[in-house]
Amino acid sequence: MVSVCFRLAFWQWQRAQEKQGLIEQIDASSGEYWWRKVSKPEQLQGATAQIRGRIDTSQFWFLDNQIVNGQVGYDLVVLFLPQDYTEYFVLNLGFIAGERDRKQLPDFDLPTNEVMIEVEFKIGDWAGFTLATSPNQSAHHSNVLQYLDHTFFVQNTGQQLSPLLMIAKNAVFDDVEPHYQAVVMSPDKHRAYALQWLLIGISAGVIAFFAYRPKKLGSSHYE
């Protein structure tokens, strides 16, 4: 128990240092390309940036079962190529309302010109909780997905894709509504958790010490 608590405290302290390093790196950088200078992609988790580039209008996907403000629909997902970049990113543009008939998909026009998008980065497990066994299980459309998966996009697009998922923070056209809210802890919160686990570990050690300490046998006198 003590060992586990100390390891958790150390892990939270490391996360605090990583987050603090990223914040300092962002503050020290200038221009819209600061995110390209980050040494480890995983450090961009939860970070935001203004990025200029083009949307690949030849293919797009709908992430199924989305509800925003009581309206049922999809998240519109595209490939995005930042300016002066050779690697595509999967980009979630946000919510788009669905039609009453599930066989009919929403109609829209993607921008063909270069756009500036504020994005938030996500790395790791793109899918979240799901009971689906594969992304494209729709009975009607091959581009309606149950969850997002990096391997799926690589295999189905033939493009070199970043492991980072981009999530739009501003709408690129009128019919789409960004709605993703990430839960990202600050360095101070990580430090607070590290201190909490450290104190729990120390408390567990103190309790164990007194519980297992040999007890002195007192002498008995009988008359």
Question: In brief, what are we looking at here?
Answer:
It is a multi-pass membrane protein. The chain is an alpha/beta fold and 223 residues long.
Topology (elements, then pairings):
Elements: H1 2-28, E1 48-68, E2 71-82, E3 88-97, E4 115-122, E5 144-145, H2 150-157, E6 161-168, H3 187-212
Parallel strand pairs: 1-5, 3-6
Antiparallel strand pairs: 1-2, 1-4, 2-3, 4-6
Helix pairs in contact: 1-3
Question: Would you kindly provide a written description of the structure presented here, covering whatever features stand out?
Answer:
The chain has about 220 residues and is an alpha/beta fold. It has helices spanning about 1-30, 150-155, 185-210, and strands at about 50-70, 70-80, 90-95, 115-120, 145, 160-170. A 5-stranded mixed beta barrel has the order 1-2-3-6-4. The longest helix is centred in the first third of the chain and has 27 residues, at about 1-30. The radius of gyration is 25 Å and the shape is elongated. Belongs to the SURF1 family.
